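Now for a concrete sample entry.
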Amino acid sequence: MRQPNHLASLLMWACVGAVWLEQGGWLARRLRSALAGTAALYVLLFLFVFCVVLSGSRTGWIGIALLVVWGAIDWRLAPRVRIALASTALMFGICWGLMDLYAAGGHHAFRAQSRLSDEGAGSPSRLAILKNAVGLLQQYPLTGSGWGISTSPGP
């Protein structure tokens, strides 16, 4: 995928799917142990959160915050699942720290960190994309622009 936000959105759906598998008991039945099912949920969530960190998508960061909120307010979920959802914020912090250490130790660039500090909602490139998106919306208000029409500011 070329677009980090799309990847992050799919990763958030993967987190929801992992929760569904655990909440429904599929992981416990498949692994023949409730403890193993819960452990698998934590492993899956950690891997998906790590991939969100690697994507550098700020949309994904919002998605992780929504996972925490979901775990806090949905009383229908099993306590073990709610705790796993709440721990995604901690997983995010651990993954961010690991990537920061990796980047510093190996003199590699950690693009997500630079995106957070250099770019924001009001960055020039984002404003140009927004301007193009508004222009496309004005051109095609009812049908949309269709596939192949880009909102990128460049040629």
